[in-house]
Design brief:
The chain has about 230 residues and is mainly α. It contains nine helices and two strands; from the N terminus they run H-H-H-E-E-H-H-H-H-H-H.
Length: about 230
């Protein structure tokens, strides 16, 4: 199974370590949709009992990252079309409002840190790093709002979407478009223009949604074409 395992036999936070390792593997796409989470195998990899593994999987289930399937047990969950729409629509509301709260009290230190994350994102050539750098950029700005519950909700929504967003960024112009939109958002923050920063954030999220929907539809069409081709008589 694909995740970063460590020996947690002597630690009191085994559940947290197992949970975070599995969460990262799911968010980054290392564990694909439908991949089984076998407790015995995971416990052996982490050199721990099944109890912290079971607790970690239960937490992942609460976050919507894991689902239980008949005859298969716990597996990495997919996102339905309805959930996809709901999560993105919720992001546009919550993240724009977080920006409205943040910009008026944003410090120079926050802006410099966001500028650094923006630069790292724009220079990165490793797809596996893109979603984390993207999250660091956005959440650095949102953290300035000093609203921890907003940030908790936002991180939970990003956890559900990051594996798909990385695919979207990997599209032909995905990285270039994201970099430019990040620059526009950051310039609005640096100018102290609250409403422009919030509006650009909403537009950015909606753009990602539209681009990702197009990508997913193309993938579905390709799969359907392959199935149809294979079913044709020789």
């Amino acid at each position: 199974m694909n995740f970063s395992a460590v020996d947690v036999s002597q630690t009191k936070s085994a559940t947290e370590i197992v949970f975070e390792s599995l969460r990262q593997a799911i968010v980054k796409g290392t564990l694909q949709v439908g991949a089984p989470l076998r407790q015995e195998e995971i416990a052996k990899a982490f050199n721990t009992s099944r109890i912290p593994v079971r607790e970690a999987i239960a937490r992942l289930h609460q976050l919507g990252l894991v689902e239980t399937r008949r005859y298969k047990g716990a597996v990495v969950a997919a996102i339905t079309n309805e959930e996809f729409d709901e999560i993105f629509d919720l992001r546009t509301l919550v993240e724009a409002d977080a920006m409205r709260r943040a910009v008026p009290i944003m410090t120079q230190a926050t802006l410099l840190q966001a500028r650094q994350y923006h630069a790292e994102f724009s220079r990165s050539t490793k797809p596996e790093d893109w979603t984390e750098l993207n999250r660091q950029f956005h959440c650095c700005l949102y953290e300035a709002a000093q609203s921890p519950n907003y940030l908790k909700v936002i991180n939970g929504l990003l956890d559900r979407l990051d594996r798909y967003v990385r695919a979207q960024i990997s599209l032909t112009d995905g990285m270039q478009r994201a970099t430019q939109e990040h620059e526009d958002i950051l310039l609005a923050c640096e100018a102290g223009d609250t409403e422009r920063a919030a509006s650009l954030t909403q537009a950015h999220i909606r753009d990602v949604k539209a681009s990702l929907l197009g990508y997913l539809q193309t993938r579905r069409d390709e799969v359907q074409h392959q199935i149809s081709t294979k079913s044709l008589p020789a």
